[in-house]
Design a protein that fits this description.
The structure holds 2 protein chains of 2 kinds.
Chain A: E1 5-16, E2 19-31, E3 36-40, H1 47-54, E4 62-71, E5 74-75, H2 81-85, E6 92-95, H3 99-102, H4 109-120, H5 125-138, H6 144-149, H7 157-169, E7 175-179, H8 187-204, E8 207-212, H9 215-221, E9 224-229, E10 232-238, H10 239-244, H11 249-256, E11 307-308, E12 314-315, H12 318-331
Parallel strand pairs in A: 3-8, 3-9, 6-7, 7-8
Antiparallel strand pairs in A: 1-2, 1-4, 4-5, 9-10, 10-12, 11-12
Helix pairs in contact in A: 4-5, 5-7, 7-8
Chain B: H1 2-30, H2 33-38, H3 44-54, H4 60-72, E1 78-79, E2 84-85, H5 86-121, H6 126-140, H7 143-157, E3 170-171, E4 179-180, H8 185-218, H9 221-228, H10 233-262, H11 265-270, H12 276-285, H13 289-317, H14 319-326
Antiparallel strand pairs in B: 1-2, 3-4
Classes of the chains: A alpha/beta, B mainly alpha.
């Protein structure tokens, strides 16, 4: 059976005057109907670029240089713009990071909702309004009738993000890509928004790609996780397994650096030394090697591939892969 | 909304008070109302008598209040050259200037919006580069030079357009005040060159303003989101981006129309256009202080009225302003 979304060896480059730089370097993952995937990593790891490349909306000098994206069995990465437009905001919708900046300030909420439906369906204004109202109720917005007439600046950040979620639901999409949907909100609202997203995915059997730097959020919401570092996926597998038994030293470092439920009480927080390299300046071999406590000579020479590590987890680490092979040999 | 309008009107009145104070100070220092009334062939004794009778020896503020009171009744003094109330002189000259400015504003609006938007959307295209280059040229050439070049090209060399005057005019209301050139072919022909010349300084500014605003708006998150919603390109450019581009442009447009009223002087002089600017130069040359002050007050009120109207219009386009006004 084919997957709902399948990304094969995607490579995204940005054409700069000084030459192309690679932002996404050969990533692959799949998403099934109703599945929730977390894309995790530091700023600049390529999470958002991955999200935007799925709907082919990379900002200007960026382009897909290699690889294919399949959606419902069709190769959408080669679709011309007009054909792609019919998928954007329709079968695949997106939720942006900052709700204060996402809605157009000079149009009412109702205007911005109705136009979205009418961009994808032949439908009268009155009927589109009915759908808009229904979706506003679905995201638990108080007095939805009134909201339709209001302008974005009359609403709070949490309220606006609910409206954006309602907009993303208007056309009953198969996938929602949420790019840091709670980063710009305060903590209590964050939890409400995440609960809402979870609830909606469950009730409508929607798939979710949750892009975030917050492993804590991902571990509560998603079934699958892909950890990104410098444009590559370095660990990929079921969220449970990855969070409890991280394979890659970077994932391990990430988990140990977050206070809260992921580490045991009394354990010290660990900080990963150094910073993620910029895209123009990626070290040879494994991109993580300058910061890695397991670093060996091979790590600076050869780029590790994502390999099966058992328990449904894949990781890209020379040292861990060798350990895994030895274990398997001993077992076999 | 109502409170917002009231507040804008109060501000407008305050501005007019300041302008009238400045105008009156000039008048009371260098003006000579006695001469305005009786000319120069009068003995000093009669003058002194006259001055006493007119209250010119009263304290400044008594005189100022009298000036304000008269101004409210539409009396801004008597023009020395025309031997008529200054305001009437101005009103007779105003239609020519109004037609000139409106024509220029129309040309600016018709060309700067499409060109500005186009060069924001396709900054690398040939037309955009040409527009940008040409607009730099346009701002740098002073209006009288543009006007003289136009006259040389279209009137002297090609003989297709007249070089001066208003041509055939029609008395619009039958009372002699509004002589319009808009209703005859000849009048429109005469209007063309002056309007284009006057527009030539402001148009580049607007093309550049619209272009840079539009480019900025196209980079915003809400435009990116509009793409992600799957809206059509046309809708994103012409509805979502354009309305946001309009906000600052409308404000500047209002101010600039006001400025154009005050600065038609050069254009009117080159084209012998019998408008307010032409009259103003005449008044300066012959030291007709009453007329000058009346002109100052009228131009200031045009400024204030245009800006107030623009602000109120702006509040209709920009919902944030409207709310701030009602609170």
């Amino acid at each position: 059976m084919s997957h709902l979304l399948q990304i094969n060896d995607l490579e995204v480059k940005f054409a700069l005057r000084t030459g192309d730089i690679t932002a996404i370097d050969g990533i692959r993952f799949t998403l099934d109907r109703g599945e929730k995937l977390g894309l995790v990593g530091e700023s600049g790891a390529g999470k958002s670029v991955t999200g935007f490349s799925i709907i082919n909306l990379l900002s200007k000098p960026g382009y897909i240089s290699k690889g294919k994206i399949f959606f419902q069995g069709n190769e959408i990465s080669s679709y011309p713009n007009e054909k792609m437009r019919k998928i954007r905001g329709n079968a695949i919708s997106m939720i942006f990071q900052d709700p204060m900046m996402t809605l157009n300030p000079v149009f009412t909420v109702g205007f911005q909702m109705i136009e979205t439906i009418q961009a994808h369906r032949e439908i009268s204004k009155a009927n589109a309004r009915k759908i808009a109202l229904e979706k506003l109720k679905k995201v638990h917005i108080p007095s939805p009738e009134k909201r339709l007439e209001q302008y974005p600046h009359e609403l709070s950040g949490g309220m606006r993000q609910r409206i954006i979620i309602a907009i993303s639901l208007l056309t009953d999409p198969a996938i929602i890509i949420a790019d840091e949907p709670t980063t710009a909100l305060d903590v209590t609202i964050q939890a409400e928004i995440m609960d809402l997203l979870q609830e909606l995915c469950a009730s409508d059997n929607m798939a979710l790609i949750l892009i975030t730097h917050d492993l804590g959020v991902v571990s509560q919401v998603t079934e699958k996780i892909a950890v990104m570092y410098a444009g590559k996926i370095i660990e990929y597998g079921s969220t449970d397994q990855v969070v409890k038994h991280p394979v890659h030293p970077y994932t391990e470092g990430l988990i140990k650096s977050i206070p809260g439920t992921l580490i045991k009480h009394g354990e010290d927080l660990v900080q990963i030394p150094g910073m993620m390299p910029t895209l123009t300046n990626i070290p040879p071999g494994c991109a993580f090697n300058p910061r890695c406590y397991l670093k060996e000579s091979i790590c600076t020479q050869k780029t590790p591939e994502l390999r099966d590590m058992g328990q449904g987890v894949q990781a890209a680490c020379h040292v861990k892969q060798r350990g895994n092979r030895q274990n398997n040999n001993e077992a076999g | 909304m109502f409170a917002f309008i009231i507040r804008r009107v109060i501000q407008a009145i305050l501005v007019m008070l300041v302008i009238s104070l400045v105008g009156f100070s000039i008048k009371s220092n260098i003006g000579d109302p006695v001469r305005d009334l009786v000319g120069e062939r009068v003995t000093p004794e009669e003058r002194a008598q006259m001055a006493e009778k007119l209250g010119l020896n009263d304290p400044f503020f008594v005189q100022y209040t009298r000036f304000l009171k008269n101004a409210l009744h539409g009396d801004l003094g008597t023009s020395f050259i025309y031997r008529k109330p200054a305001l009437e002189v101005i009103f007779r000259h105003a239609p020519a200037t109004i037609e000139l400015v409106l024509g220029a504003a129309l040309i600016i609006a018709l060309f700067s919006f499409p060109l500005g938007v186009y060069s924001a959307l396709y900054p690398r295209s040939l037309l955009s580069r040409f527009t940008m280059g040409f607009s730099t040229l346009g701002v740098s050439i002073p209006v009288f030079l543009t006007a003289i070049m136009f006259i040389y090209l279209f009137a002297v060399t090609l003989h297709i357009l007249p070089s001066y005057g208003r041509g055939e005019t029609i008395d619009l209301f039958g009372n002699g005040y509004w002589q319009t050139g808009l209703l005859t072919i000849d009048g429109l022909k005469h209007l063309l060159l002056p309007c284009v010349s006057l527009a030539s300084i402001m148009m580049p500014l607007f093309i550049r303003l619209i272009r840079s605003e539009m480019m900025e708006v196209l980079e915003t998150e809400y435009i990116k989101y509009a793409w992600a919603k799957g809206l059509s390109t046309r809708r994103i450019w012409l509805v979502h981006a354009f309305k946001n581009t309009l906000l600052p442009v409308v404000t500047v447009f209002g101010v600039q129309i006001g400025i154009m009223f005050a600065f038609t002087i050069l254009t009117e002089t080159v084209f012998q256009w019998q408008g307010m600017g032409f009259m103003f130069l005449d008044a300066i040359q012959r030291a007709d202080i009453s007329l000058l002050i009346a002109y100052l007050v009228v131009v200031a009120s045009v400024f204030v009225v245009v800006n107030t109207v623009v602000d109120i219009m702006y509040s209709f386009i920009n919902p944030t302003v409207r709310i701030a006004g009602t609170k």
